[in-house]
Amino acid sequence: MNGSAHNAPSEEEITLKRGPAGLGFNIVGGVDQQYIMNDSGIYVAKIKDDGAAALDGRLQEGDKILAINGQKLDNLSHGAAVELFRSAGEDVHLRIQQRPIPQNGPTSSRADGESSSAFGTWTMYTIVGLAVIAAAGFIAYKRIQLHPRGSRGPF
């Protein structure tokens, strides 16, 4: 066995009571707005502070919502999924697939309950680094164009 059973995302059943501000989270995804390439699932994008989901504490940003009140969310448009949430009633039963926790990646020690994405941080630093390299290369290219070796003075 290669240990992949330990890395399989776990599923969980959660019931949330709709509060004055709704369920307290935003969703992304759907067949028309894929959040993850080749996956039309519905995902938790943001947990709102002091909302029903945040107070419950089990639903996390990045979790995939598999079903709401027994209705599977497979092959739905984003709008259809939003409508299911809006019409779900006061007590909303969710079946979720928790986001996988990286086994060898960086860990977060944030005590404030905010999620942190190692991939998002890595991507941000990569983009900034590539931008700096591109700018330096462009400046060097322009200097060579303006002052080729062996030339003296303006043209």
Search tags:
Pdz3 Domain, single chain, 2 domains, elongated, 6-stranded antiparallel β-sheet, 155 residues, alpha+beta
Provide a descriptive summary of the structure in words.
- Its main location: mitochondrion.
- One of its GO terms (biological process) is establishment or maintenance of epithelial cell apical/basal polarity.
- It is found in: Mitochondrion outer membrane.
- GO terms for molecular function: protein kinase binding.
- This protein is of the alpha+beta class and 155 residues long.
- The chain has four helices and six strands, in the order H-E-E-E-H-E-E-H-E-H.
- It is elongated and about 70 Å long.
- The N and C termini lie far apart (71 Å).
- The relative contact order is 0.16.
Anisotropy-based shape: elongated
Structural class: alpha+beta
Number of strands: 6
Strand content: 15-25%
CATH superfamily heading of the largest domain: PDZ domain
> How many domains?
2
Distance between the termini: 71 Å
Structure, briefly:
Its main location: mitochondrion. By secondary structure, the chain is of the alpha+beta class.
Summarize the topology.
Blueprint lengths: L3 H4 L3 E7 L7 E5 L12 E6 L4 H5 L7 E5 L2 E2 L5 H9 L4 E7 L20 H29 L9
Antiparallel strand pairs: 1-6, 2-3, 3-4, 4-5, 4-6
